[in-house]
Every structure is written in C-alpha cells, then in structure tokens.
C-alpha cells in the first residue's frame, strides 16, 4: 500500500515585484497553513517522507506544517524538480520515489496537483485550492506502478472557516 498526500502551497503574496520562485506566503496563506495543519494531524501517517518544492511559498507552507505537527525541520527534503506546474513532471518525480517509503507528503503547485488528483483519485476536484490537502491511497507496493487510487481525505481551508 502506498499513500500520497498532496498539499498545495498556501496563498502567496504579490506585493513585491519578485521572481515567481521567490514569492512568499501572504498573511492568509500563513493562517490557512496553520489551520489545515492542525486539522490534518489525525489523517497523517506516523512515518513518511516529506518533499517540498524549492519555491519560497511551498517551503514556507511545509515549514508551518512541520512546526504544527512537531516534525523536525530537517526531515523536509527540498527538491527543485517539484517546482513544476506540469502534472507529467510531478508524476515522474513521485514514481521515482524509493519503495522503502509507504507514505509521501508533497508540498507543490497547481495545475500539477489538481491534474494529478483527478488522474489518480476516484473523486473529481475542479481545483485544489491554496493550502488544499488531498490524501490518496494506492493498492500497490511500488511507486512506479501507482495508477488508480482512492481519495481518503480532502481538507480545504474554506471548509474549516
């Protein structure tokens, strides 16, 4: 059994003229990350690998989750290839995960996240919102062979307010 938890980064700030990769979280993004993390705690596996895009907004979201969930910050693995909006590229990264890991928690970007959720999940989601959490379970022992999964849980900030 493999479990994939996709978390879209929090709402980012457009206040400063920064390169896309350098945009930080907006106040709402910070608040939503705390909110979702605190609700997600019971749905997260005890053992996992945590991957984050190297984009500032994604890494800040991962850090907020880590702080709320008492994960060591060093447990977050930052991967440049997760800074993608392309579902095929994101799928390739996920399928390259070592089969030693049963659970992957991934902080990334849309459109890739919404497209992957709809490709692999059994529930259609029009758009995974910022700080959206989607847990998908796969009945396989190999990341390279994930295909049809079951959406176990979604947590969206708007549902918690």
Describe the protein.
The protein is an alpha/beta fold and 161 residues long. The chain has one domain: Phosphoglycerate mutase-like (Rossmann fold, 3-Layer(aba) Sandwich). The protein contains 4 helices and 6 strands, in the order E-H-E-H-E-H-E-H-E-E. A 6-stranded mixed beta sheet has the order 3-2-4-1-5-6, sandwiched between helices. The longest helix is centred in the N-terminal third of the chain and has 14 residues. The model has no long low-confidence stretch (mean pLDDT 95).
Topology:
Elements: E1 2-8, H1 27-40, E2 49-53, H2 56-69, E3 76-79, H3 87-95, E4 103-108, H4 112-120, E5 133-138, E6 149-155
Parallel strand pairs: 1-4, 2-3, 2-4
Antiparallel strand pairs: 1-5, 5-6
Helix pairs in contact: 1-2, 3-4
Descriptive terms for the model:
Rossmann fold; 4 helices; globular; 22% strand; alpha/beta; 161 residues
CATH structural fold name? Rossmann fold
- Gap between N and C termini: 33 Å
Radius of gyration: 14 Å
Strand percent estimate = 15-25%
Number of domains: 1
What best-fitting shape do the alpha-carbon axes yield? globular
Describe the sheet with the most strands: 6 strands, mixed
Are there runs of 5+ residues with pLDDT below 50, and where?
none
**Percent in helix:** 25-40%
Strand order of the largest sheet: 3-2-4-1-5-6
CATH architecture: 3-Layer(aba) Sandwich
- Please state the structural category: alpha/beta
Give the SSE order as H and E letters. EHEHEHEHEE
Q: Helix count?
A: 4
CATH C-level: Alpha Beta
Number of strands: 6
